[in-house]
Amino acid sequence: KQEVTQIPAALSVPEGENLVLNCSFTDSAIYNLQWFRQDPGKGLTSLLLIQSSQREQTSGRLNASLDKSSGRSTLYIAASQPGDSATYLCAVTHFGNEKLTFGTGTRLTIIP
Amino acid sequence: DAGVIQSPRHEVTEMGQEVTLRCKPISGHNSLFWYRQTMMRGLELLIYFNNNVPIDDSGMPEDRFSAKMPNASFSTLKIQPSEPRDSAVYFCASSSRVRSGSYNEQFFGPGTRLTVL
Q1: Given B31, B42, B108, which is nearest A98 (Cβ)?
Q2: pLDDT tens-digit profile of A83-92?
């Protein structure tokens, strides 16, 4: 059974700093990995999708990397802003099943 | 595009009552997912459909839960009878699956916050 872990559970960073969020998964036979953000009381906003054949994806200040063999992904946020404060979730799919298996999330706070 | 639409946004009901949650996926998307989020268990898939056909319902807790997708633009998740432990946020998501084995980005609705007293 796939298990997805995100450590740390919470992170506080001063505004302007670059930061990295971590995601680990136990079964490396994934199809793709998706990063989301969730604001309090809101739904999930998709940030980036990485296919298993890709090493990284970039969108603006965000860069997600994937090392499938080691079961790890990172989300790099450059020049953090208070608006980046949210909970960040990673999730994976497997061949033959579209369902997302979610990580435990990292609650990020950017300190002005 | 309006995105994934869910209704109601909030539902408060008493134990034993029937609850129906509704979802309209993004136009053109052919996969629809129902997830549940709780503090204890995080986000978990309940059921998903592809081309209106249920593909994986292994996450449906028990017979009290049922889901239907009568057409490409509408789905319901029904709980009957509801119990306090069903209190959670229920999310609907959709994606476009171009071909077998090709899974695309999932887009989530705002969720329905269900409270069962």
Answers
A1: B31
A2: 999 999 999 9
